[in-house]
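Weekly modeling sync, notes
Attendees: AB, CL, MP (scribe)

Item 1: holo prediction request
CL wants a bound-state model with thiamine diphosphate before deciding which constructs to order. AB pointed out that an apo prediction alone won't tell us much about the pocket. Agreed to run with the ligand included and paste results into these notes for async review.

Input as submitted:
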Amino acid sequence: MSVMHVAQPMTGVEADQLCINTIRTLSIDAVQQAKSGHPGTPMALAPLVYTIWNRVMRFDPQDPIWPNRDRFVLSNGHASMLLWSALHLTQTQAVNADYERLGQPSVTLDDIRHFRQLDSKAPGHPEYHWVSGVETTSGPLGQGVATSVGMAIAEKWLANRYNRPGFEIFGYHIYTVCGDGCMMEGVSSEAASLAGHLGLDNLCWIYDNNHITIEGSTRITFTEDVGARFLSYGWNVLRVGDANDIDRIEQALEVFKNTNGRPTFIVFDSHIGYGSPHKQDTPEAHGEPLGDEEIRLTKRSYGWPEEAKFLVPDGVYDHFAAGVGARGAQIRRVWKELFAAYRAQYPELAIEIDQMQRRELPAAWDRDLPIFPADPKGIAGREASGKVLNVLAQNIPWFLGGSADLGPSNKTTLTYPGAGDFQADNPGGKNLHFGIREHAMTAIVNGLSLSKLRGFGATFFIFSDYARPAIRLSALMELPTILVFTHDAMGDGEDGPTHQPVEHLASLRAIPGLVTLRPGDANEVVEAYRYIMQLRHQPAVLALSRQPLPTLDRNRYAPASEVAQGAYILADPPGGNPEVILIASGSELSLAVNAHETLLAEGIRSRVVSMPSWDIFDHQTQEYRDRVLPPNVKARVAVEQASTFGWERYVGSSGNIIGMKTFGASAPLKELQRKFGFEPDRVVAAAKALLDRK
Ligand SMILES: Cc1ncc(C[n+]2csc(CCOP(=O)(O)OP(=O)(O)O)c2C)c(N)n1
Ligand SMILES: [Mg+2]
């Protein structure tokens, strides 16, 4: 078909085809130019993406962060050229981190020419926070689909809380495109199972059933009946047998929109590398440039000028402007009027929405946070956390979350009257029950956060391993998610080494931008939350004790509010000027304090530094850090019931680290403390050894 040289105005069908082929050829050219990338899937899915964007989605390219927009998630993130093409051709506008519109396109043709190059707004994979209009970072297969479940939960919750008769402030759909890889990754099963249980009928996954992955045909790896799997999850399963039939695609999406009580799964039969005479339906089309000769042949098959590169023919921008552009502008205009009337009638709710959208906190958000009195027996970190969560959830309407089936252990259950459980028939509930699905939970919390809710998830610290891929993405996306990890060390003694984290602190501390906090007593827990809640662009992880920790006497020791510095001088010898520094976090803080008192009694000038967070401390001024850890005091002992990995940076080459070099063991905690050396005498001895004292 040659649609390039029509003299008369294009018919609608011709314009559709022209737009689709523009997406295809931009993708082909960008990958060829970059000499890397994934052309085949964009070539195959161009009609799908075109239909979703130009015919169906309620999205205004002028304002890609309008709260009631439909969401588009490209879970098969390697097909990113689909997204760059869509954002470019719709002329979606850029916004900055302060939610200001910048008056320039999000993705320019020049960005596409520099696909995968430094600073281009068309990077290898979709990156939230780097490119406006990207709803979530994707690329690690399975993350996008799981995150989209969080978006769907958020929409349900928002609609329930804010909609009023005649005021549908929230009512949007989430369209998620995914491939074989996403379907094979376990996290998609976790997430789909929960989405089916919750009956999230605002959620549609479109599965690119092309039978190809990198190593070849899915005959060698993936022969399950995916549709049947989703039926069993309780989804509505549809099929589009011809990836080029855009009317049928539109029809299927219409069925989705009219389906109540179930999410929709569309099995979408496509041909990777569509139109390429030698590469269609082959794995080579997945991740290799087509090559100049094949590009010519492919363009010929599309009726495209064979030598043209990065061509956007006349009429393409206009056709998108007349489709999604006009529809989106109109819908957003109506919404804005509606919201103005809503603001007049429900000013408090409107303010909540404003604050939430800007990731601000409501006034008095920290009202009634507990203060724990000194108590040698104390309270467990998880207990203190539970009290704080229950206060915060009452003060901050859009703060919600839950556990992966460990609520009673994590103490994360919101127990105040009216908190409620989020279920299909109670979308206003604030307790999310994720089931035993830590990976999906964490991706879902990302989805909540991308929807501007303040979400938290919880499990045992040991199972942060199961959550880690999504934690990493929350840091990459700069989302203020919260993960409450309890049973942070050997406190669950008898459960044994399978349940005792060792390397987890070190591994989370290694994630750039992630705030890891291990508070040392109940008041440090409160202050840790106070710090975390004020974060707008960083995720945080809390490592909390299972067992009671003494609540330190803050008249005697420094105030817990100093947690906000990451590390602080908790106790000093009279007049300061220490000769040895004991550094501890979490359950080892009181141990260090005990050792300190013994050392003082023996005339040794010791200091205790409480260090709940490396990350926060590392961001303090050099002057502050030197005050806490004076460079001339070389005798330093770090105590932490975790891998010693990394502590050298605080104790120096002449310091001593009391930590874990092996896995733990199954025994009562007291015995483990003895076996692994977490006792005051050991700390005292280590300090004296450094000072060459007996
Ligand atoms: C978690 C994860 N594992 C591996 C990869 C590497 N990878 C990228 S694409 C791909 C194959 C995906 O196959 P499919 O989803 O069918 O995509 P198609 O080639 O059909 O577009 C793999 C293994 C990845 N991106 N994420
Ligand atoms: Mg595939």
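Recorded for review: The chain has a mean pLDDT of 97.
Action items: CL to compare against the apo run; MP to circulate these notes.
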